[in-house]
Specification:
The chain is α+β, with helices and mostly antiparallel strands. 21% of the residues lie in helices and 28% in strands. The chain has two domains: 459 residues, no CATH class; 104 residues, Immunoglobulin-like (Sandwich), CATH 2.60.40.
Amino acid sequence: MRFALVALFSLLLSACQSPSLHYQFANSAPQPASEQTAALLGAVVEVDITPPPGMPKAGFAIWSAYGDGFRTRLKARVFYLRPKGGEPLVLVQTDLLAGSEILHAALSQRLAAVSEIAPQNLVLAANHTHAAPGQYFGNDFYNQHASNAAGFDQRWFNFLAQRIEGAILQARGQLRPAKLAVGQSEIWGQTRNRALEPYLNNPEVTDKDASPGRVFQAINPTLTMVRIDLQDGDGQYRPRGVFSSFSIHGTGIGSDTAFYHADVWAYIANELAWRVQQQYGLDEKPIHGAFEATHGDVAPNVEFEHLSYAEARRVGSNIGAQAFDLFRQLDGQLHERVELHSALREVDVLQQPSIGAISLCQPALGAALAAGPIEHHSPLIWQLPFIHPGQPKTWFADDCQGAKHWLGTHWLQPLIAPPETFPHRLLIQTLQIDNSYWAMLPFEVTVMSGQLIAKQMQQSLADAGRSAAPVLVSSVANGYTGYVTTPSEYALQYYEGGHTLYGSQTAPFLAAHSGRLLGEMLARGNFADLSASRDFDLELGAFWPPAQTEAQPRQVLQPPQLISDEEEPYWRLQWQDQAPAAMAFEQPLLQIETLQQGQWQPFSRAGRLEDDQGFDLAVRWLGNNDYEARWYNPATDGASYRLRIEPRAGQPALRVGLPR
């Protein structure tokens, strides 16, 4: 995520916003689990979280746009696992910028009241797409500055909470005997390091070669996969779900598109799922949820300065295809005697800034973050002194923030942005999933920061008498608190170091906490170390469109036209329909049909339905009640095709033929 210099001054304007909303969530005692005979139960559910147009998108700060429709849908995917005699693990993968501590609190309270799910059992992971709405965070700082508009939107938050809660409870009601396997493989050539000089500044990196090809080596290539097979009615176990963690920024598509989309992750998720469905002869596509690992300095290997859907598709599909190879390797490793454990701790770093001899600073925005990362750098601002990457402070550098030039100076910034306005209550979580151990952290973690954290967790395993095992560090889980760089990376003050809010010791601090929490989890089992209640005092924003009282007739405004875009040609159709709030964008809307032997049937290519659950059907809101449907990369075989627009608000389906 990037900021501009004006972000500092927008903080001053925020004092004029509407009165705040006070949220309080008390921790609930979970209900007892029902008896089970199988060693492991599981369920997987996918739910659509695509909102109506009009929401500010998060990730590119003021360069973001209001969403005007979708190109690839936004989803939440629930993976519910419960071992016999143990507590469940509920991992939720979302097509969002990050997790959210207020969303975690709300869901924890609701679920504990009706189920055996305790707060430590719930994980909110994210793929860090930069094209989903913000305005759902538990602090004003990122509600104001992650997007192109400010404020916590209650209706969007409630929509997210209701959709995810419903999916979790649906999964709980569908539990079946399950088998699981965890595996890892390396994927090269699809990512590159976007901050090579800070990476090379780490003393652990002994090879200082900075030739152009080094950016493709200075990455975390490991993809970690958890495969879940469920028992069907015939007693056979079949693939139904998989979640994966990989290091790649959700920035393959630029900020100049107003569509909601899941960026490279849409292609990663669907490519694997389609291949599994076809290879294993499944009646439906399995659910694949993919989310971030240590991606803070890792970008997709799209053509430089040519961010596009076509490039994101190329990279994401390649990753999905290689992930499928790992999926098949797990065929013989599935088993049901699985250990699942989880621990969760809230750390208020303003009240508890130290662990052992390691201490954090008071939070501060660095001038370097105004420049942005190299492939999304801010125009003009990029070249300014002290903002341009790699210009650390060399005088008066003996304060806690050291090499960081404060955005707006260290005299003015605290007056406009006091420490308490920054996100400061961290949810730190550790998991055991079979023979793997996970740290779920609310930061964008760089490659070498992840290695530092994993090393401390390996030490905790050794101290507990456990053999070495895969240790994973996942970014942007359960909340968002900017970046974490190593002390050596921080010292050079590139974008990532400028956005490391709490200073150079952030990575050692998180390593110490993650190692300690893992050690306690191994000794104590599942637990949550949370305050009795959690308060959220948030400034409001209202972006969700108003409801419509009466249904409107549907009609074509402009007949289909073939647009000859060089990269992705598309059919375009404009029509009039219901107001945005009545269009139920979370429900299927568009599908291509083809004429076969005198009958119109859903059209598929290579076994993949051509509908708005894939890559090539998009819808834009044009204002008022007017919309535009697009079919990208359409079939050109001369057959008969038509676009079907599903019923809405009691209005029948609209079918429009496409010229041959």
